[in-house]
Specification:
Elements: E1 6-7, E2 13-14, E3 22-25, E4 49-51, E5 70-72, H1 75-81, E6 84-85, H2 91-105, H3 113-124, E7 125-126, E8 129-130, E9 133-136, E10 145-148, E11 151-156, E12 159-164, E13 167-173, E14 178-181, H4 185-192
Parallel strand pairs: 4-6
Antiparallel strand pairs: 1-2, 3-4, 3-5, 7-8, 9-14, 10-11, 10-14, 11-12, 12-13
Length: 207
């Protein structure tokens, strides 16, 4: 049985055999290494990051005594859940994300990453519940993730792609009017200012 370590766009954990493009963590361990069951907690700290699958030949026992390893379909999913690029294994992406965020939020000073983590933490959750944002669809950048009833949709070009743990499995027209947005506003600002996240190959054709 697969572990419940795959992340949905709303930040919840689910069990799926699908292999994602990225892994990550939420600042430490919040699972039980003995049972490896679905945790009651959703984080160990405010540092929610997304990482490459392989880095410096490190090997890990997933959901052992170390931090709680999490896996994402792609970076669009990770951003929607409230994660940001890791400064250790994805330094160039992390710096590009921060620079775009600074432009998008019109900040006078470049924040340290713990400050960004505090900002994202306010925007991504209300306690254990996913914080959502109602925004006009026409104003949203590519790679925004929205919830439409029981579906997760990723906006790209002129369409909305239907999300699944293993990739995108269909598309519908770009929505209109007010929609339920999962991607935190800070990440929306970064996307609007040119940050380009990693998409799952099923989202092709690439931009």
């Amino acid at each position: 049985m697969p572990l419940p370590n795959r992340i949905a766009p709303d930040g919840s954990l689910l069990a799926s055999p699908a292999r994602g493009l990225l892994m990550g963590n939420r600042g430490g361990r919040f699972h039980d290494p003995q049972t490896r069951a679905l945790p009651l907690r959703i984080q160990a700290s405010r540092q929610w990051i997304c990482c490459v699958l392989s880095f410096k030949n490190r090997s890990r026992h997933v959901w052992g005594s170390g931090y709680t390893e999490l896996f994402f379909c792609d970076e669009v999913t990770a951003l929607a859940a409230g994660h940001r690029p890791c400064m250790e294994c994805r330094r160039a992406d992390a710096l590009a994300y921060r620079a775009a965020l600074v432009r998008g939020l019109e900040l006078r000073e470049t924040p340290l990453f713990p400050e960004i983590d505090r900002l994202l933490d306010r925007e991504r959750r209300d306690g254990r519940v996913k914080r959502i944002h109602r925004l006009p669809a026409e104003t949203l950048p590519d790679a925004t993730m929205i919830r439409d009833g029981g579906r997760f949709l990723a906006l790209r070009a002129d369409a909305a792609l239907l999300w699944s743990p293993g990739g995108y499995v269909g598309k519908v027209p770009w929505p209109t009017g007010m929609v339920t947005v999962l991607t935190p506003p800070a990440s929306l600002a970064a996307l609007a200012q040119g940050y380009r996240p990693l998409w799952h190959p099923s989202a092709q054709p690439a931009a």
